[in-house]
Structure formats: structure tokens, C-alpha cells
Amino acid sequence: MKEAERKKLARDLEAIVGEKFVRAEDVIRWTYAIEDFAGTFFHPLSDKYGPPDLVVKPHSAEEVSKIVKLANGHKVPLIARGGGGDMTGAATPLKKTGGVILDMTDMNRVLDFQEGLNAVRVQPGIRWGELHHELAKKGVTSGVRGPHGFLGAALGGGISGNCFSINSPKYGWLNENILNLQVVLPNGDIIETGSLANTRVKDWYYRYCNGPDLVGIFLGAAGAFGVITEFTMRTYPIPEFSDTLAYTFPDIDSELKFAFKLEWHGYVTDLWGIAYYTLPDSIKKIIAPLVGERDIAIFATEAYDRDIFKAQKKAIDKMAKEFGGIALPVAGLTRALGISIKNETEWMGGGTFGKVMGPNGSDTCSIAHLPQWQKVVGKALEIMKKNEDALSGSVPLIGAEHFFLFAQILGRGGISNTFAMTPANFMDPEKVKQAQDMYNEIVESYMDTGYAALYRIGKESQFLTKRFKPEYIAFMKAIKKTLDPNNIMNPGVLGLGLEEGE
Amino acid sequence: MRLEECKQEAWLCNHCSMCTQTVSDEAGFYRICPVYEQLRFEDSSARGHNTIAFYLLNGTLKYSGEVAECIYNCTTCAACEEICKPFGNLVAQMGGTALKTIVPPIMNAFGASFDPVLSVEILEAMRADCVDLGLQPEAIKKIAASAEENHNPYGEPHADRVRWAEGLDISQTADTVLFVGCNAAYRKQEIALSSAKILKGAGIDYAVLPGEWCCGSPLLRAGNVDAAEKMIRHNVDLLKEKNVRRLVTACAEGYMAISRDWPKVAGDLPFKVLHISELVAQLIKAGKIKLKRRIDSKVTYHDPCHLGRVMGVYDEPRDILKAIPGVELVEMYPTQHAAWCCGAGGGLKDTNPELAMAIGTEKIPLIKETGASVLVSSCPFCKTHFMNVLGKARETIEVKDITELVAESMGV
């Protein structure tokens, strides 16, 4: 954008939100040219991201609406951003398009809580930790607890990115808990979905009424079809009884079958599964003497009633034994230490990623259907072993090893999230290039299984959308063209808003 | 570029946003960065500063007035580093401070660091570059010039440094030295006086050195590295010359600089360094300090960032307050490792006084919520700033340094 144009746009934006909330200096533009480090620099499009032309902080749907109308007039891209922790370019402009970042983090209030309806209405800039704090004051929980404890992440980004979550095995993904949305469409219209579409409804939150479920179009759309300015989500009572349990299994197949059945019966709140054969030798050396060469499932279970809780744990034990499970005395240990995997203990501190898991560590994440888990992970592991040299120079958790991989199995419907940790020495450009190539190969292998379907909806969507059926792509493009003819809404996400070959 | 020394550190930041704004009931955090809470754009958080460092290092950004303005808007309170600590939440739940001493050696044995990303170190390296390029704010230039000329940041004559001690007949030679620090020497002299009375009352043979210079902390925090090193070398030489075995200070800022920064410049120190709260807590336990007089007050304690988060001194000031007859200690929330900064640190009170006041003002509701009539701290900078903040807001809450309460209760 030319400087004169930027200045004119800044003045127009200032007239909407006030001078204090529009910034255009180089220092602020480059600050917003980055997301999660791995997402911005490790991924294949890393050289394609650039700074926004301006950053603006709206405070209401009306302000967002005016900004959207203004952007249409200037044909300037708009990118909504929350905590900025995305890893696939959803919250960063493309270098070639630039654009205006809408920093939504001042739209962060809890607007309404309805005890009888078990729902809370909030603005999208609210961060996970703040939401937990506010709901706890009301004696309820959101069930889903956020993206692995990154409590500074905003919920709007989670909705736009199809966030799975701690506690997803019991409560589903974040978007399964969304009831209504208020959205500013690309033409500036403000709409409300579900029960709120009815002018007579002010405080009744339901998703599936008044015709088709139009909420779904905006969930996981990475801002391609509008800017979410309010939403309602389910709330749940806080379970009085909970425990962390652990079992080992003779092989990964038995563990996966157990995890699948456990989740199917509704007994598990959150679960981490460790596949022995995927671990680096140094970690194997620690685990084998303790539990043998077996696979480990650590999980949380909870209930609202003491008797039901006791019976549930008994049923879990029976189920584990059915698959050759041997109980580990984790429950007593975690109780003694006062921790549980169902709460926020997954939040490990940002430094964990840089300094414990390996300097400049990155991760490849994949969503896989549990029965297909071995197929997805096996291929990734093969690629990592083949490219071990690419990772040398890094210092992962246990020192000598150059990679490790572990898996979290979660999500209703037998969905697992798999992390392939690929730390590399970022001080060595050659190693970085090698690691990037390996990363690409892993992601391609995930996508080729067809069982990887969650990530890569940001500007990294090429991995996903090139495998879409043509009719489906045409349908999405038709929606995009109808709603956003000027392609101003986050161009590049989901492969939308850019010309062919761009 | 001095920032080059922090290149690896800057690359380690994962940009996860927790240092920008996080609430964790489990770990006791309610929001993190005091400057971000006021300015509300990402360039005013540690994540933003680390991003700026990254782009400065790869040449995309150049140092400028804009960059300088941004990176001088920081209190160096290190809350960003606290939230960044690996496995921080787990450690907090499993035993808090006790575990913090056990876990790091275990992690180190496995070849992993337990440190957070050292965002304040990165920031201070950028400030040092700004000083080298002459981009630092005018207030910082004045402080450096005054330190050079007067050995204190206030433009006060060095000859007046021990004026507060006139008539007290304090020795200039002893194993124990009370390192007064510039703020207590020239501004909050009641803290210097209380400290001296406590030491005398406890029967400790101590000295105050008229040749003491600025500890260097205000200079280091602002990027005046060369000037700071000159101060540090002078002080270390002086203390060595006097054969000092134990240094006591009532200044949180000075305590951090002497314990942490001086050895980096002058090597291992041949004397023990104590914050006065540590010494007083020891002396109370040993029965050498008797707190005789009742002080019937509800009191809340403000953790100075550099004494608490950076140096890990949380318990001693609280032990002291609990030992004073009549004092009822009521904690603010958040507190200790998650306590909010007063707003005065990192030179912000000099470079952006309005922002510093706004940060301090944010803390008033937290103080009032405790119902305390006295706000106690153990840092002259915090005391000064809270007096300004509460005075401007016409609040009647009294602000005292912990040494004042101890001296009062000792009846000295």
C-alpha cells in the first residue's frame, strides 16, 4: 500500500474507532507480522507472510461493520486476530496482499450468562484463562478448556480455527459447543444466527432452529466469510469428583481400542496416549525398566456423584483389563501432588517449547481417526527417521536424541491429535531448510491418509484443499463470491480469495 | 549490535501470547503485562518486544525513535518471564516455590533448561543498542550524565549522600556494610534511617560508606551499560578495600543489581549480600530483634518485582509482618510471583511518568479490596510511586517501607 493511501485509510479508521486505536508505524506492523513462531517461520509459506498495512482495535460490532464497509471501498484485505497464536497463517497477512489487522482483543467481555439455559454469551477477543476465571465465579465451566492450556489464546481464533481442546473427549471440540453467532458479513451487515435470528428473541440461545444451521458456515472458516463479533457457548456444572488414571497396554492396537471404547462410553475427560515404539531411545531407556516395553494411557475421569464415580472407575478397570491393561498407581501420586490432567496443567509455560523440548522446536500436528492412527503416525515416523540429520544440532528434552514424537488421543468420535516434534537448529540456515522439507513431507503424508482433516485451514490450506473434490471447492468458492465479492476477508485462507496459482 | 548476544534467546521465543495477557486461577495469575494492559497493542508486551528483536536481528527493522519509544515502555517487572517458566503451572500446583529449587537441577541433568525465555534480558540489550545510537529518551540521558558527574541519578551532589546520617555516629569501617542506595540516601531517607536504627538496635556492628556510588541498576535497566559498569567496579573496589564481609541493603533494585548484575561485571563477590528483610527475619528468629510495640493495623504487602519475581524473596517480608504484634496481614490478589508491578520500574517513571502512574493506579482497587489501612513494601522506588499514585487519587491508605514498621515495633 502506498504511503498516501495508508495515511488516508488511517484517518478514515480513526474516525471510526478513535486515534488511539489505529497504528501504522513500522514497529507495530512488524509486530503483527508473526504468529506462533513455528507457524510463521517453520512452515513452507513462511516467506510469503508480511506485515499488515495497519492495525486497528475495534470495540463493538458496529465499529467492525463500519471498518468492513470502509475496507470494501478501498478493496483492502481484513484479517481478524485474537491472541495471535495460530500456526497456519490465519492471523497474518500475505506479503503480496497486505491488509488491515483487526486486533479483536479489546472485544473481550462476558455479555450474558444464563444459568437456566446453560449458556454464556461472550465477545471473541476473550482469552481462555479469563473465560475460565469468569465462569468459575458463577460456579460453572466451559467443559472444553482451550488449546492445550495456552490460556492467552482468544476464543475467536479457536472458533475460526476449529480448535480441539483439553477435555474434548467428553465435551467435544470448541465448535461443538457453539450455539449462536453474531457476525459482521463482508458487506457490513450484522447478522445473528440460530434462535437470535428471530427479532422477538433476546436471551434464548439455541443453534438448530429458524431453518438451516448457518452457524456452521462461519466455524472453522478462518474469517473467510465474515468477522465474528459475539457468540454463545454451552456451560456445564463443575464435576465434584475427578481423578487421573493410567494403564499400560501390551501394544498400541490394544491401547487404541481401549481409548476408543473409553471415550465411546463417556468415561474419559481427557487422555494422553504414549506409543512406546514412537519414542526416542533415551526415553525408552527410562520407561522400559519402569513399566516394560508397553504403551501408556494417562487419562482423567470425572462424575457428579460419588457412587457413580466409584462405579465408573470400576467399569474403566474392567474395560482396561479386557485389552490387557495393567493399572499404574498414577491416581495416588497425582492426588498426593495435587495435580490432574483434566485441568490446566497442560499449560506448561511458553519457555517449555523453546527450552525444554528443544531450541527452536516446532511441531507438526495432525488429526487422525483412532483406528487409522498407526497408519498416520507410522509414515511420519518413517520420514523423521530417514531425515534424522535434519534435526541434529537441536537439544530436545533428553539431550542426545534428535527427534521425538508423542500422541494425544482425544476428541469425540475417536479423533486423535498427534505431535511430531521436529526441533531444528535455527542458527543454521541449512538445517532449517532440511527440517522444513522434512516437515512438508510429513504434512503431505498425513494429508494423503485422508484421516488428517483439522489443521491447515489458514494460509497453509494448500495441503488440505488440493485434496478436496472439485464440486466441494466450487461450492465454497460460490459462497465466497456471493458473500465477499471483493475478496477482502482474509484472502488466502482455505484457498479462497486468491486468483488461480497465486 | 549488543542484541546479537541475545540472538539465540530471541529465537527461542515461541510467540505463544501467554506473556501478553493470561489469567490462570490455578497458578494465581490475573493478567501479566502491566504495560500491555494500558496500551493494548502487541508491541507493548514481551512477545512484541521479542518479535521486534527478531526483526532487528534479521535486518528487517532498523533502530529508530519509534523502536526506542516502544522498548522503553516497559517496567522490566519480569511477569512475562514468570508466566513463561517451563512447566510453571505444574510446579505451582505441586508445591510452588519449594519445587522451583528442586526441578531445575533435575531438568539440567537431562540436558534441558528450566529457564523461561529471558525477555527482559533481550529488552535490555535493545535498550543498550539505543543508548549506543543515541536514541534513548532524554530522561535516560540525564540519568547517565548525573551518574557520571554525581554518582547518583538525581543530580544531587555526592557530598550529600550521607547527610541523612549526620549526628548518628555511624562507623565507616565494619564487616557489615549498609549499602544505602541512591533513593534512600537522597529521597526516602526515612528508609535509610530506619535501616540504621534496626541494625544498631540488633547490636550489629555496621558501617555506611560515604564513598558508595549508585549500584548501577537504574543505568543497566535503561541500557547505560558502560556507565553502570563504572559504578559497579568502583563499588566493588571500595568494598574490597574495606574488607567487607556482609552487605545489607533495604533497596530491592539495589539488592537485585548487587546479587545478580555485579558478579557479571566484577566476578565473584567476596562478601555476602542480603536484603534487609532477609536479615531482619533471621534476627527475629534468633531472638536478636524484639518486636515489642504493638502496631494495630490491617496491612497488605506489595511484592517489589525485582525482590520477588527476580530474586525469589517472598517469605521473609511476610514472616516479619506476621511477627509484629497487632499487625494483621491481608494478601492482595494476585500476589507474590503473580503480583502486579507498581509501575515505577525499568526507568518508566522517568521516561513515561503518565504511563507509570496509570499502571500504579490500576493497583488501587486490589489494595482497597484487602481493607488494609497500610500498604507496606520493601523498596524505596515502590514506596515513592505508591505515595504519588495514592496521593493523586486522594486515598487515605498509608504507604510504609517494611523497615519503618520494624523500627517502630522495635521502639528504636
What tags apply to this protein structure?
heterodimer, A: 502 residues, alpha+beta, Uridine Diphospho-n-acetylenolpyruvylglucosamine Reductase, domain 2, Uridine Diphospho-n-acetylenolpyruvylglucosamine Reductase, domain 3, Alpha-Beta Plaits, 4 domains, seven-stranded antiparallel beta sheet, five-stranded antiparallel beta sheet, 17 helices, 18 strands, B: 412 residues, alpha/beta, Rossmann fold, four-stranded parallel beta sheet, 22 helices, 10 strands, globular
Could you outline the blueprint of secondary structure elements for this entry?
The complex is a heterodimer of chains A (502) and B (412).
Chain A lengths: L2 H15 L4 E2 L2 H6 L5 H6 L11 E3 L4 H14 L3 E4 L18 E4 L6 E5 L4 E4 L5 H10 L2 E2 L13 H6 L7 H4 L6 E7 L5 E3 L22 H4 L8 E8 L1 E2 L3 E9 L2 H13 L5 E5 L6 H11 L3 E9 L2 H17 L3 E3 L1 H8 L13 H6 L6 E7 L3 H14 L17 E6 L5 E7 L7 H21 L12 H4 L4 H14 L19
Parallel strand pairs in A: 2-4, 3-4
Antiparallel strand pairs in A: 1-2, 5-6, 6-10, 7-11, 8-9, 8-10, 12-14, 12-15, 13-14, 13-17, 16-18, 17-18
Helix pairs in contact in A: 1-4, 14-15
Chain B lengths: L6 H6 L10 E2 L4 E2 L3 H6 L6 H12 L7 H8 L6 H6 L3 H7 L2 H13 L9 H14 L5 H13 L25 E4 L2 H5 L2 H13 L4 E2 L9 H6 L2 H17 L4 E4 L2 H15 L5 E4 H10 L11 E5 L4 H5 L4 H9 L3 E3 L18 H4 L1 H10 L1 H6 L4 E4 L2 H13 L5 E4 H9 L2
Parallel strand pairs in B: 3-4, 3-5, 5-6, 7-8, 7-9, 9-10
Antiparallel strand pairs in B: 1-2
Helix pairs in contact in B: 3-8, 11-22, 13-14, 15-17, 19-21
